[in-house]
Design brief:
Elements lengths: L1 H8 L1 H30 L2 E4 L6 E4 L3 E3 L6 E3 L24
Antiparallel strand pairs: 1-2, 3-4
The structure holds zinc ion.
């Protein structure tokens, strides 16, 4: 048990490792909540093509049943479906 002896002789090192583990847990918790917040922003809409409820993430998304491109932004209506629209934020989003 060399490692145990090492930690006994160096309590500061053990504390440092415990602190690192603690920080890792905090980071994963933050990421977990962040993903939860992102998915809660999904808007439930009824697909005009197949009349089934589907969820939209961002301004444009495809229907999960029939793959029909959907948009929440009237400016993008009729335009070709492109996931890149989601990254182009408008100032009116206020985020
Ligand atoms: Zn559909």
């Amino acid at each position: 048990m060399y490692v145990g002896l090492f930690f006994q002789a160096h309590p500061l090192v053990m504390t440092l490792f415990m602190l690192l583990g603690f920080l890792a847990i905090i980071a994963s918790t933050v990421i977990y909540f962040w993903i939860g917040m992102l998915s809660s922003k999904a808007v439930q809409v009824t697909c005009p093509e197949c009349n089934k409820p589907t969820k939209m993430l961002g301004r444009v998304d495809a229907c999960m049943h029939c793959n029909e491109p959907l948009t929440l932004d009237p400016d993008l209506e009729g335009k070709e479906f492109d996931q890149a629209y989601n990254s182009k934020k408008k100032s009116k989003d206020g985020e």
